[in-house]
Amino acid sequence: MKRSGKEERDEGECYAKRKTGLNAFVSVSCYAFVRLVHVFISEEQKEAVFKALEEGEIEYVVVSASSAATGGTLVEFPLPTDGVNDVLDSLREVGVDENSYVVVGSAETATTGTMERLQNRYASDFSPLATAELRSKSRDMSYDLYSFVWLVAVSAIIAAGGLLVDSPAVIVGSMVIAPLVGPVLTTGVGVVTDDRKMISDSIQLQAVGLVVAIVTSAVFSLFLRVTGFAPAGLAVSSIELVSVRLAPTMITVAIGLGAGSAAAFALTTKGPTALVGVMIAAALLPAAATVGIALVWGALIVALGSSILLAMTLIFINVAVIATLRYLGYRPDERDSDSGEVGPPPSWTAPRFAAVALLALVVTGALAGTFVQLSFEREATTSVEEVIDRPAYDELEVVAVRTQYDGRPFDSSRTVTVMLSKSSDRTYPAVAERIQQRVVSRTGQEPEVRVRFQEYQVASPRPD
Q1: How many CB atoms lie within 10 A of CB 343?
Q2: What distance lies between CA 343 and its chain's CA centroid?
Q3: Cβ(127)–Cβ(158) under 8 Å?
């Protein structure tokens, strides 16, 4: 079969990228579009399997083989990646069960009489990876513990430095390094495939990663403070990139859900997940670094708010990963994923019960704190808009409204910071008080209200 010009160009580009060592950044076109499937079948299954393959226009070869128990036949055939699930489902319908010997490998290219028709058939169809491929791909993203801790620590140092110098570019660089996407995705895969060991290992890695990020950023911040490379009197909450991570907001909730869903969807395709992993790190790593910085500077309330933000973001990312994989149709096998046999449910020992109870307590507390914070933020924003909509403030425009906890830890008092823009030299001395009164009337709480103004000039067009 003659290959198309596009296939030849794609292969040439991929070869060049591999030669230059850019494997981690190879685009989707460089991943194998062809899968080589090997299926071991019994003599009784041969006729039904061959018929199913022929009806699907799949060319195959047969290799005589034997197993330890009975003789059989090894059937080998190439498929476009998007057709693997469809064909395996057809084979299961004719008797090839979940316990059969099935190997799905990658191939650079395949030349058969029907391959082009198969590629055209599945080109416009979205077909997620088979469950076995999904598990294999998620495991390939895992690091050994030493490498994982090292990369998280380095990325946390860079993120802390980026926050302290208020540099978004440096923070983005730290996100590229962080390997946090691996344990997040393997947790979701473990849940949807009922692999309890994968779930346990992945959750432990998530916890280790966040602890390492917080501790490392705290040690690095302490070093900067002790050696005088950072101002001792620095108010961390005044740093712009820190101030946006003082408490959960509706935007951060949406970011967590979006990052988790995008990562899960990318995992189910034949393409890479490296770039989506940056989004996972963007949602988690800066918040973890903020906690470490705040602890060193004694800003306990900042550390508390960022910790809640970190916990909620992690929860929403995991929920989004699991929900997306469920939506795409992934379900656990009838057999236990680890042993291949149906096993009894896990026993509820005291340590297991305590761990689950602690996790439930943390999740419940974080959800409750987030709900309270989001509710207050919504009411505060509405209050500001109602005040600024009055005719006396026609020249003012709302730029941003931020709310954060203030005072000692576990103190319910808050601060509302309002950014307003204006185009004249007119002053508004009573606007903060009026906003405060409106917030009190809507929420029953009396926060401290701070108003900042941004002035700008307007050049109107000259009349003709």
Answers
A1: 11
A2: 32
A3: no
* Alpha-carbon gap, residue 85 to 129, rounded angstroms: 7
Query: In angstroms, rounded to a whole number, what is the distance separating the alpha carbons of residues 360 and 366?
Result: 10
C-alpha 115/C-alpha 135 separation (Å) is: 26
Q: Residue by residue, what is the 3-state secondary structure of the chain?
A: CCCCHHHHHHHHHHHHHHHCCCHHHCCHHHCCCEEEEEEEECHHHHHHHHHHHHHCCCCCEEEEEECCCCEEEEEEEEEEHHHHHHHHHHHHHCCCCCCCCEEEEEECCCCCCCHHHHHHHHHCCCCCCCHHHHHHHHHHCCCCHHHHHHHHHHHHHHHHHHHHCCCHHHHHHHHHHCCCHHHHHHHHHHHHHCCHHHHHHHHHHHHHHHHHHHHHHHHHHHHHHHHCCCCCCCCHHHCHHHHCCCCCCHHHHHHHHHHHHHHHHHHCCCCCCHHHHHHHHHHHHHHHHHHHHHHHCCCHHHHHHHHHHHHHHHHHHHHHHHHHHHHCCCCCCCCCCCCCCCCCCCCCCHHHHHHHHHHHHHHHHHHHHHHHHHHHHHHHHHHHHHHHCCHHHCCCEEEEEEEEECCCCCCCCEEEEEEEEECCCCCCCCHHHHHHHHHHHHHCCCCEEEEEEEECCCCCCCCC
Domains of the chain: 1-27 (no CATH), 32-127 (3.30.70.260), 138-332 (no CATH), 369-455 (3.30.70.1350)
What CA–CA distance (Å, rounded) separates 280 from 184?
Answer: 9
Query: 414 forms bridges with which residues in the sheet?
Result: 405
The whole-number average pLDDT for the span 168-183 is: 82
The tens digit of pLDDT for each residue in 204-245 reads: 899 999 999 999 999 999 999 888 887 666 777 677 777 777
Neighbours of 194 (CB within 10 A): 16
**pLDDT above 70 (res 278):** yes
- What whole-number distance in Å separates Cα of residue 99 and Cα of residue 122? 27
pLDDT bin (cut points 50, 70, 90) of residue 4 is very low
